Amino acid sequence: MALPNPRRLLEPxxxxxxxxxxxxxxxxxxxxxxxACSTPDDSSIALRVVxxxxxxxxxxxxxxxxxxxxAAALVGLGVRQGDRVAVVAPQSWETGVSHLGIWxxxxxxxxxxxxxxxxxxxxxxxxxxxxxxxxxxxxxxKVVEADPDLDIISTDDEFDEFxxxxxxxxxxxxxxxxAYLIYTSGTTGPPKGALLxxxxxxxxxxxxxxxxxxxxxxxxxxxxxDWAWIGGLMDVLVPAWYYGMSVVTTxxxxxxxxxxxxxxxxxVTLAFLPPTALKMMRASDVGSEHLSLRAIFTGGEPLGAELxxxxxxxxxxxxxxxxxxxxxxxxxxxxxxxxxxxxxxxxKPLPGxxxxxxxxxxxxxxxxxxxxxxxxPDPVTMxxxxxxxxxxxxxxxxxxxxxxxxxxxxxxxxxxxxxxxVIMSMGxxxxxxxxxxxxxxxxxxxxxxxxxxxxxxRGQVPKAFVVxxxxxxxxxxxxxxxxxxxxxxxxxxEVPRTIDYVHSLPRTTTGKIMRRALREPDQ
Length: 523
Hints:
CATH class of the domain at 60-198: Alpha Beta
CATH topology of the domain at 60-198: Rossmann fold
CATH architecture of the domain at 60-198: 3-Layer(aba) Sandwich
Largest sheet: 9 strands, mixed
Strand order of the largest sheet: 2-1-10-9-11-12-13-14-15
Helix content: 25-40%
Number of helices: 15
Distance between the termini: 59 Å
Number of strands: 26
């Protein structure tokens, strides 16, 4: 018998139309994400930290107390409402406490990935104007190099000493007040800081309910995704704590076999596994026995029909793909128990979110490629870009995602590409995603990325970068075979004119392919 979840926004209904028509937002005037995730006198497990063969459990009562004491310590240092406090640390107890404590103090958390080097940190710390940073010991050297004058609180033993003060009441923030400043992954240009409000937690919940098939309090959730990006923080950690669910964390590097063991040992029932993680699992031929999974959410980049079918067959549970971006997250997706998934599609607009496709002339279109747009106001969308104009991000009340896609006659959305990734060849608009999926359907290919490169006759032509599976080696014959594979499945103008074989693909810290880095040597 599943433990009831009184905060869940959606309940199972017979069909998609009923779910959308019955739902309406109810956003309170005052709301604080830190307070909302704190449950006094709750001894259930909020976080299980897995290190080697040991488990360290923290309760919701401990979470509420520690975050309130951190808020008091920050206020004691002079942190005021609206100040930015960076968090440069991997998944950990201290990282979770830090975000909640910053929000309770009325300040704005700035999550920054441990993968960042000094230059990347310097850009974000300077741009955000961070007042201080909470930093794990292994990141302190980089942060000091990035900003020698920045005050630092370490998450080692010093952290417990720092929060050894009396707790304070949370700041009485409005739902519209800013809570966190999270930087885009920079797939098409310099990262931009998206400023998001406390209400965005509520805005994420219909997606959370659908992707994870109506979670209950006794569900156990895990993701390898870093909590420094919106996928780890807002697709998993914060909504799970708001619902009173247990989160599992480990700082071991992602390894397919280790991930399976972790999910088996911890009886994980829900997981967010980005497509890159699923591709690595498929390439490693990991087992799936003894898993307790009932739903996997995946997103961040297109999943593709072939990988969806493999995942569904291999794990034997609901596989729900979703779509969003830092500026407007969890707005499209699937809930396989309510409406059928269409392989290759991102799903349908989720309850509470209006999403449509518009042409370059501003007309709504169906059955043809256009820009995916999200109607505002919407509780999940950003307030604005930090230190930048967002005037080119909107057309009237519609937020422009910069992603191209197609809406079919049944309301399913199909991702084509980033607007910046479109390949213009002899008048044809070619999206790289379809070519990449075709290449991934060949048994020799582990990963693939396609970009447009200059061509004197055609303007641009597709070029592929391919990572081969173990046991396969680059040859002229294999190149011809891959080109034939694409030609017989797509169209002649979509065949990669050249194929480079590489050991890995450049990715952002969120796992998205950086096509910009692949294009630059050729332009």
